Amino acid sequence: MSIRRFARALAPVAFLAAGACVATRNDLRLVQNDVALLKAEQALADSARRVQLDRVIAQLGLMADSLNATTARINRFQGDVRQQMYGMEQQLVTIQELTGQSQRRLQELRASMEQRATVAPPTPSTLPAGSQAPAPTAPAGAGSPGPNQLFQLALDQLRRGSTGAARAGFADLLRQYPTADIAPDAQFYVAEAYAAEGNASGADSVYALVAERYPASVRAGTALYKRAITAQAAGRTDDARALFTAVIERFPRSDEAVLARDRLRTLK
After folding, report:
1. The pTM is what?
2. 110 and 229 housed in the same domain
3. Are residues 39 and 75 both part of a single domain?
4. How far is it, in rounded angstroms, from Cα 100 to Cα 245?
């Protein structure tokens, strides 16, 4: 075969190869364009997501600031409430102390009057000549101390720290004058004497007697409240809650009811 004929035979093959190269370059350009378009779309999507994320972060920041401000206000409010409750408790304690001082003064006066009433009248031998002895005014059994005298003597012992002598004195009063109007106070101070000795169980049992035997006395509410405080201090939460509730229900207008409501709010 001559060279000319061979060249004519290869011409179609070369034409096809050139066409294929042109097609491949076009396809490559199309692919590159598609990739560039995808990258642009992805960049736009990423930018939109960043904008949305920035908005969400900003909103979360605003919410966090609002929550912190609300928490701060709540904490201030709780602090104010605690301070007010503490002030109320202090005022109630002051009122109770003043009331107690008045009651003690009244009790001392009653004891003094009893003591005067039990002094034996002068005998004829001690009267001036020509005088007559006054008619006796002391009750039968004059010379023995009355309930108020016994109470005052026992209370003085308790104030001096002689708890055993105080309990004996109050017990003597309750034995001799079980229906005296001072009996609830005597029973209450028996419990106080036990408490002063550190005998919590003994004090609790006598406080229970006060509430049981003298339910109409103001000492009953105080006794129940003291039992609740003892139960709370001992970790008997259910007993404390029941006793605080009993104080509120049975003595709703008492100072102890106010304190019991406050205790119930903080009782865990």
Report:
1. 0.51
2. yes
3. yes
4. 25
Give the domain range for residue 9.
1-87
**How do residues 153-170 score in pLDDT, each as one tens digit?**
999 999 999 999 999 999
Contacts of 246 (CB under 8 A, 6+ apart): 224
Phi, psi (5° rounding) for residue 123? -80, 160
Quick one: 165 and 257 in the same domain?
yes
Selected residue with higher pLDDT from 77 and 61: 61
- Contact between residue 96 and residue 255 where contact means Cβ atoms under 8 Å apart: yes
Contact between 262 and 89 under an 8 Å Cβ cutoff? The reply is yes
Q: Is 255 helix (H, G, I), strand (E, B) or coil?
A: helix
Q: Cα–Cα–Cα angle for 157, 161, 162, nearest 5°? A: 55
Enumerate residues 6+ apart whose C-beta is below 8 A from 168.
Answer: 154
d(CA 93, CA 9): 124
What size, in residues, is the chain? 268
